[in-house]
Please model this.
Amino acid sequence: MIIDAHAHIWYPPSFSLEEFLKWAAKLGIDKLCVSKLPSLRPSSFSSFSEANKDVAEAMKAHPETVLGYCYVNPAYEEKAVREFRKCLEEYGMLGLKLYTDCHCLDPRVSPLIELAVEFNAPILIHTAHIQRRYIKGDPPTVSNSEDVAELARRHPKATIIMAHIGGGGDWEWALKAVRGVSNLMVDTSGSGVDLGMIEMAVREVGAERIVFGTDNFLSSGIGKIRGAELNERDRELILSKNMLRIIERRGLP
Amino acid sequence: MIIDVNAYLGRWPFRRLRYNTPEGLVRLMDRAGISLAVVSSSSVLYRNSHEGNLELAEEIEPYRDRLIPFAVINPSYAGWREDLEECVGSLGMKGLRLHPNYHDYKLTDDCASKLIREAADRGLPISIAIRMEDERQHHWLVKVPPVSIYETAEIINRFPEATFILAYIHHSEAEMILNACPERENFYIELTSHYLSGAYPNQLQSLVDRIGVERILFGSGIPLKYPESALMKIECLEVSEEDKEKILHKNAERILSL
Model:
């Protein structure tokens, strides 16, 4: 079994959900945890609530395959929290996806994390794998690996997933930055396929804290796991068992 | 049969590599089912790049049946003609590998034109490494931009008699080249790039639909990259087995006169 912990549905006509799921199935991916990012970010309330509706529809159309992450801009404070609650209670979503609308240590993020803890819902956070002093082009609201690790330390009951170790940047630094933070998972997604990346992740953070993901780079995502030298136990943990545990804790089938 | 046209051996100053010895590389190739690899020196930060060629030739001697060496020539550096002669004449190198970005010259410079003309006269394919790794992870002191796509297109147009392999080229860059050189058939697209996906969207399929399987060469960037990721792109391609064979080895055999 293979679960993609980090995928997206996107905007037609360049993107077709059915075509995407067909390819995922061909590559042996059984379930995908998806979010939809509003096209303009920082995002407006109407754009992220619309995006969440689309995710809910995708879940309804493909209940066996698609799990959803709610997307909000934490700057909307109470309204964002209400939207997240709606996604959990009404749409039955798995968790929360945060991007660069707000820095992850912004106090406005905390109520969302608390709600996630209440529902045993994971929080997937877009992460830049680069030291703060070298972040130049990105918005100041981008969170890096150290920031996400700090967030996980401040909320020890939360399950936080640091996005895409293959998403560009210094993945060696990123892995070292999150060592020993037991409630912080890392996902394998992103376009990067540097040989040794997955093995180092296992060595530095442990297979129990790694979840498979693609960030929609389906073929290279599968390719790097196929190429990684892992024992069967670790491979299973990464490809499905760790994420299954998270899904079960959330109370979803 | 699989031929990888984008492999490296040598120093890589920015991170510890595995499989970066001739024995290791061959072991990695065996794991991935790769029979032959075109290999050049990764020691691109040597000021005198020819030392990398000498190192490579010496190291791969016992593995000549698996590793096909390409010469890294820097045409802006003293003595390149003699270096080229030595690489081809004495060391048995089968093509050129250019790193204009690491060696700080432009493909459209006079010195590069002279080298390209020389390579074309000798029938040597010219592999241009558009990049060696993802720019997003470059060392803070060594940020090397990719090779200019405009200049690459310019030399493709200017030297129809030369054969170019565009290694580690992103899908969007390949499209730019195709638009800039629609009538040229003297260049090949190689598959290492992390932004040339197999599925989904299947960017490789769209390239194949546009220029045909004859112009695509399998390459994976070993040992810097997992070879399985590039192989997956071929697996996802909806073409006949015969066409896959062309990408996996037949096109390379033709270019390398194997």
Summary: Chain B has one domain: 3-255.
